[in-house]
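DATA SHEET
Item: assembly model
Revision: 1
Owner: S.N.
Input lines:
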Amino acid sequence: MMQNTEGKKSESETYLRVEKLKTQFFTARGIVKALDEIDLTIRKGEIYGLVGESGCGKSVTAQSIMYLVPDPPGRIVSGKIYVGNVNILTGLEQLAKITVKSETNVKIKRNKRMIKRHNYLLSRIRGDRISMIFQEPTLALNPVIRVGDQIAENILLHLKVDMANAILRREMSTRKDYESFVQKALSIGDKDARNKAIREWCESYSISDAEELVRNIFLTYQDPETVVKSIEFIVNERKSGTNINRLSRAREYYLYQQRLFEATLNLMEAESGKNQDEIDRARTALNEIKKEGSSFLSFRIINKFIGKRIEAPLRDAAKRRVHELLNLVNIAEPERTALSYPHELSGGMQQRVMIAMALASNPQMLIADEPTTALDVTTQAQILDLIRNLNRQMGSSVLFITHDLAVIAQMCNRVGVMYAGNIVEEADVNTIFDNPKHPYTIGLLKALPRADRIAGKMVKLETVAGSVPNLITPPTGCRFHPRCKFKMDICEKKKPELDDLGDGHKVACWLYQEPGGSGK
Amino acid sequence: MLAVSGTWGVRQMTDFGTGDGGTLLYVSHLKKYFEISKSGFRVTGHVKAVDDVSFTLNQNETLGVVGETGCGKTTLGRLVLRLLESTDGDVYFNAPKEVIEKVMSLERELDRMGESNDGVDKERYDSILKELKKLSSEYSLTKMSHRKLKKYRKEMQPVFQDPFSSLDPRQIIRDILAEPMKLLTDMKPEQIREKSLQLINEVGLSEDHLYRFPHEFSGGQRQRIGIARAISIEPKLLVLDEPTSALDVSVQAQILNLLKDLQERKKLAFIFISHHLNVIRLMSDKVAVMYLGKIVELTDTERLFTNMLHPYTEALLSAIPIPDPKVGMSRIILEGEVPSPANPPKGCHFHPRCKYAMTNCGWSPRDMVLPLQEILEPLRVKSSDVLPTTKEILTDESKNTVELTFDKALTSAQFETFKTFISEAAAKPNGVRFRAIKSITLGAGGNSILMTMREADVPKLKEVKPGHFVSCLMYEKGAENTGIRGANVGKAAS
Amino acid sequence: MATESNVGGSILKAQPVKHRPRVEDFKSTFKLFIKNRLAFVGFVIVLIYFTITILDYVYPSYLGVKDINTIASWVPQLSSGVPSGPTLSHGWWYIFGETLYFAPIFPVMLAALKTDITYSILIVLTGALIGIILGTMSGYFGKLYDEVLMRVTDIFFSVPTLVLAIAVTVVLGKSLQNVVIALIIIWWPIYARLTRGVSLSIKSNKFIEAATAAGSSGLRNVFVHILPNVLSVVFVQFSLDLGSIIQLFAALDFIGFNEGSPLLPELGNMLTWGTSYLVSGIWWPIVIPGIFLLIFTVAINLMGDGLRDVLDPKLRR
């Protein structure tokens, strides 16, 4: 409970908070301790870089945050992941009982009902609040569906209510609405602010394709009467004459679904606490909403048969949004690209489509798992530029995962260095590169061949001896100690905590902390 | 001493034999065209994976080959080792010094004959060709019989990128290491065993590892084994195809150090193929930059990184992320992607993405379609009678023409307007392609416009500065853009 | 993945050196295999069947007759009009009842296993050998050779197996040997196809290129590098095929292609004998051998699936 209130307090600046996350893989050869209770916070609007060598757990971190750890063999064993203020690992203990008899003999008893409810929760959070860009776009895109349809599908999945609202507003709008808008817009003197208002208004009327036209009208005409007239013309031109009754009924249904989701979420949160009163209250609330469901029976039957027709106006809107999105990711011919199949596009284009898809639902957070590793240098430069610009434009947070320190240096605000399932150092990007503290970070930076420095034939790189350990039997204490130059006795015995050295520079190393003072 | 040779063209600087040990490898006009066939039978085209590549390599020297996916760098490596049959061209490896000199002087003479405008002495020409053919059939790896080739195989070995597929999963390390020695030398089993032990220690593994299967090793260890196999028969040349691309940073550093160590001790020559420019800078003495099957720039490493001349090299170098947050990115973001090698752009392959492109760089009808649409589209929307509605844009690559058809006949005034549109576009800074239009004429019937593009010049790899070979039209005599480019060279370097 | 204990490979191990990597590898594979319970059960059943076959060869007199290759050795011992049903009152041999000529089903069936398993191993082994050699070469050398081989196999695949087997046997003449020959003829294309595909994918591995650079010739590449890698995949197919071949063999015998050996103890023959009694409600002569055939096929499939899991390189890594 303590942490719950804490979560709400810091919500204003943190978007993602991972606490003591522990993910393991139960294989025939033994338990792979992939993540060893890592802590991670990502603030709103920042690009957080997670860097490390293969097998250090960066991808598992991403998978865990999306709850996409392949199961079997993997499972999140314990921990909390707050996305906004929702813990997506609510009721984790109820999902499955894990009994470890020995390294190779593990029984996992899954609770099907709980898992079903949990998946329902996740389906609303994935995509809606967090999206992911994968390393191999070829594998992440469905090869038999046109990319435009794939993106549209994502939009429909998450933005139904908004779109239905906007379409209804457009269809039922009258001259009065335009007048009030024009009055408001004209009263704004600042050009940027006015353009922003125009964009929002267009979006809320589902006519964002006409945004530029509206802007031009405001520029060319000063007389409110003409402006209103022009806008009326534009909106009327775009009215499609949909069945308003049916669409508004559909909107009610979508709203009901949303309420149902929220109530379920409340119940799960209550259940994770031990307060019986709260659980009962949440349960009755959910049951009440469920009762409402019976009134939608006839609509659901109709939806079964002519669902496509009911959704048709939404689909139209989604298609327009697809073109906007493709434009946003710098695809030259959105109309043609939307109609092509993934294999017809080059690697760079596929990655752009992936990004467009991830942005489809306006998520507040983006996880990019090695998004440029499969690409060439020049294409990589394009994609990195794109991600940075999008981050700036949309203000969403980015968790950027890569093994390339150079990319980190150019992209990120804050960096976490991972080694063998632990975050060993965390600081803002300048500190990491100017003043690295952890022996591993230092070694990694020195081992980097650099294209911007003269390197004669005689120059040798400094190396970190050895290789990443096997995580079935990880080294005791600090997992880096077998490769560390500064190894001390305590390193083998006790795991160092991630300790703040001041200014948010955190290091997990015994060189910088007293053995007695740990665990605070 | 840098000793490089270009295409038929310029080969003034061939100062051979002054390096330690002299020229080890001379690759001359090497080509590999892969056939594209539909339905398995009819050949419908060629992918020019390696197109007329020439270079030399001295003993104990490293040539870095750098380029993006599909530029042909891996194919080049395989051709040099003759793991792939070449379409044309020669590879002289470990040939007597006189032979290489002879071949070069003959080729130089051929070039001069090709360049001179006077009548060519047909007899002399034929006799040179004949002599070259004789020499190449005797000494060139590409034309040798497999039996004879075995002698040369001993002197050159590959190291591959993927440490997982380069070791036979069913053999133990001892057998993997022994294979080249067993097949290429007369060593006795005893000697082979001894040598294997020495090798495995040399690359930092222990005897115990000889008796394991590849799947028991990590990527870095496998790469060590691959290197041990390659050096087992004491070769003079190693072709390293992305040897560290699949490895982690800390392991990569170990392997690179190992390679440097071996090179120093055994006086090896490397062809180091990689798309990682930072690794290339660390490892090579000279660098060849490849783009769509051709070498576009070739010079020694420091000069390439500080004073690059080719626009592609400039863009490539500026795209490398630098591991220092304070070094701001002054990237040249290239537009678009590497074109398909099956259908590369005309003239200079790089021209559609080049910011210094000139009118003679190879603008062809297909480059015009989109920009023309961009001009015509707003007109159509306005639906004014500035121009009739465009029906089609037809391109004819062989005739080098673009044909615009309209639904109505154009008046002469409308034709003039169109011309002004084009000249307006040409006047814009990025309107080179419109400047490359040679003529605009009204087609028969008056409802079409025919535009003819100017002929493309093909750049050749030329020695622009001593020891600096570039394939770019900007450095030809009387080029339009030399000044602009020259000003940029210093800036990009800093 | 299994032994990542050393750091950078620079530490020499002190333990006494005992180098039997292939034995070790086999051991760990076997351990992984028996972890799969179902596969292990299948393996044990198959082992029992094979033991019986071997016993039939080395110590045939345990079946209580001089010549186990004809049913006539067992008759007549009892006679009561119709074959008696399963019972223990006449001793173990009569536990499954009697069949034609009042011969006891149990020992006859044990003798039958010898015939069936021997022939099916013979067929699969020969077919696999031909198929593997042709297929591997075809995959490695490609071009015209490959094209011809693939078109030939296409012809074989375009006709249903049983129909083709019947046709070939009719042409060659109805006898046990010819059934064997017919099955070999229709069986090798399966292996040719399979190994061609596998060797194509192995060929693209870099270790083949490394071997070429080490002076290995094309034929040497095929036999030293490609074949051993193909074999693990073939091994799985091989084990699965034993089951289907034994069924096919029995089926061909059942529909009367074994002229000249009607009294041979063989599962197909036993089914034939049983059919004449089926009308009068005597089910055991046909159901019991059927069950034994079924158990063998299921067991061998379970084992094959287990093998596939274990030999899958992804799992092994």
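QC remark: Confidence is low (pLDDT under 50) at residues 1-20, 483-494 of chain B.
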